[in-house]
Amino acid sequence: MNSTLAKSQSLPATDHPMVPQPAVITHVQPEAQGVTTYTLGFRDPAVREAYSFRPGQFNMLYLPGIGEAAISISSDPAEPADLRHTVRIAGNVTQAVSRMEVGGVIGLRGPYGSSWPVDRAVGDDLIIVAGGIGLAPLRPAIYHVLRHRADYGKVTILNGARQPADLLYPQEYDAWRSHDVEVVVTVDRADETWKGRVGVVPILFYALRPDPKRTTVFTCGPEIMMHFVVYEALARRIPKDRIFLSLERNMKCAVAFCGRCQYGPTFLCKDGPVLSYDRIEPFFAVEEF
Length: 289
Ligand SMILES: Cc1cc2nc3c(=O)[nH]c(=O)nc-3n(C[C@H](O)[C@H](O)[C@H](O)COP(=O)(O)OP(=O)(O)OC[C@H]3O[C@@H](n4cnc5c(N)ncnc54)[C@H](O)[C@@H]3O)c2cc1C
Ligand code: FES
Known about the structure:
Largest sheet: 7 strands, mixed
Bound molecules: flavin-adenine dinucleotide, FE2/S2 (inorganic) cluster
Number of strands: 15
Helix content: 10-25%
Number of helices: 7
Low-confidence stretches: 1-9
Distance between the termini: 38 Å
Strand order of the largest sheet: 10-9-8-7-11-12-15
């Protein structure tokens, strides 16, 4: 096992966790309708040098006079200077970010939160299940697994979107496959160009025969999708503490101070967003908790 990641600490961009650091947009990559990936570089070389993150963590993106939004880091944790965020237009901040171009400056504080347990999963088979923009916080874990492929057993990525045009990062799937990773893609609704599978993502589980004693599941996507993923994983006797979900709730401080993101006894900004199912089961079962 490569222990670089295990040893590395996630360094905040500043000494004060609430102070954003200016970061310059160096590349803009349209991904799908209303979804764009922004590559950011810290303006201060010392901050750029010190910054690191773990797969699944997020940053707070700040636009003066508009506000802040929690956005997952979607790039390779081994290349923290090449920091990417995949943003879907939702409200004020993301709308304003969508109007920005290369050279624009965004305030950034982080990284925050828990991460996909890529070290704990060493030696396991992995099933990574993504729906829509849920692939963004999973992509750093995928990059980590590709870099350390020999550390894992069978790796399967199940990915879905509402329609073909909404699939994230399709240009990367073949590269992932070339590392002995099975990538299975489905869409809810096909169009005339689509020759692949049609149906919701959890259905892809039907073809899998995982060994429950050595399988870990990572999933992120719409909560209704994750409910079915958990159901299918449990039906295959994968233990609750081997099923990891990334949960999303409104966030404000991101440092476990304001209580905005409280989810049962946990604060999703600090204890989450990645949590094992055994920790959240009683709340996850309650609709709109
Ligand atoms: C840990 C974490 C990771 C995340 N990662 C990503 C990511 O990688 N990419 C991404 O795109 N998003 C991500 N999000 C979601 C993102 O943080 C939210 O969509 C955020 O609210 C966007 O901020 P905003 O100011 O653009 O939208 P907001 O203004 O907060 O609006 C968000 C939603 O609320 C609605 N809304 C806003 N104001 C009102 C109102 N007054 N009344 C009723 N409805 C209202 C809007 O219509 C919209 O649907 C993540 C969230 C979390 C918690
Ligand atoms: S966002 Fe303030 S406690 Fe989590």
